[in-house]
Amino acid sequence: MASSNDHLVQSDDPNHPANLIPSLCAKFWHLGWVTGTGGGCSIRDDDLVYLAPSGVQKELMKSSDLYVMSLAAQSASLFKRQRIYLREPKGLKPSQCTPLFLAAFTKRRAGCCIHTHSQWAVLVTLLLESQNKNVFEISHMEQIKGIGKGFEKSGNLGYHDTLRIPVIENTAHEEDLTEFLEEAMDEYPDTYAVLVRRHGVYVWGENVHKAKTQCESLDYLFQLAVEMKKLGLPWIRSPELVNLQAQYK
Ligand SMILES: CSC[C@@H](O)[C@@H](O)C(=O)COP(=O)(O)O
Ligand SMILES: [Zn+2]
């Protein structure tokens, strides 16, 4: 089966998922999102899901290293943990993030899901841990407008909206995060991301462009939040300040 379906990862089109995953991961490595083999990215093109191998240097991946599966065949399988691949590269194992990426594809019909080990995301989860909180909230920041309003909703959040990103606790094995990620999606149906304590973040979007720009906007906001905390500035603008602004309108 493996070699017969090599055509699934062979294309001259730079926007083909099999070419995009390696090129995106190479870019993400420079941002510190996928260093030391951590993190990754998966793309769904209609029923086909493209996945990276596990434990490889994600910035050095080639299209021939990728796994391909049918999403429908996956959901139809009686044995959810048994995965059927249309294409499997030799001598590699599929990413441990696979069930988490599949959750974004099946529960939110995402076209792309990115997992980063960004230190900004990790630091935000640590700051929230010290406050006993399991949701990141920030308001009145222009970059919030880079995040969509939610699943099956059109348009993006506005400047006056509060962005909320749930946090789940880390587990010893990546795949054990799946049930908690799914629970967070149910509790926050409009979220496009879930932070993982002391680990990183999963971000998705309806297509590659949206997943990438939302991940960039969130990383920007996580970094900003860490710097604000250092300066003693609150993440939610206080009502007093809102009143003060209204006074001088
Ligand atoms: C530095 S090891 C990180 C892994 O355990 C995991 O968290 C991860 O993000 C990547 O898993 P992988 O199976 O290599 O795709
Ligand atoms: Zn990870």
UniProtKB/TrEMBL annotation:
Class II aldolase/adducin N-terminal domain mapped to chain residues: 19-226
Functional pathway: Amino-acid biosynthesis; L-methionine biosynthesis via salvage pathway; L-methionine from S-methyl-5-thio-alpha-D-ribose 1-phosphate: step 2/6
Active site per the UniProt annotation: 142
One term of GO molecular function: zinc ion binding
Residues involved in Zn(2+) binding: 115, 117, 199
Database matches in Pfam families: Aldolase_II (PF00596)
Catalytic activity: 5-(methylsulfanyl)-D-ribulose 1-phosphate = 5-methylsulfanyl-2,3-dioxopentyl phosphate + H2O
Cofactor dependency: Zn(2+)
BP terms from Gene Ontology: L-methionine salvage from methylthioadenosine
Family affiliation: Belongs to the aldolase class II family. MtnB subfamily.
Function: Catalyzes the dehydration of methylthioribulose-1-phosphate (MTRu-1-P) into 2,3-diketo-5-methylthiopentyl-1-phosphate (DK-MTP-1-P).
Protein name as catalogued: Methylthioribulose-1-phosphate dehydratase
Organism, scientific name: Coniochaeta pulveracea
Gene from which the chain derives: MDE1
